[in-house]
Amino acid sequence: MSSIVIHQPEYFPWINLFFKMLKCDKFIFLDNVQYLRRGFQNRNIIGNNGRSFYITVPIKYAPRETLIREIEIDNSKKWIDEHIKNLHNCYKKTKFFKSIIILLENEYAKSYKYLNELNQGLIKMLANNMEIKCKFFSSSDLDVSGAKSDLIFNICEKIGARKYITGTESANYLDEEKFKKNEIKIMYLKKKEIIYQQKNSEKNFIKDLSVLDFLFNLGFEGFRKIKI
Question: What is the pLDDT of residue 228?
Answer without folding.
Answer: 61
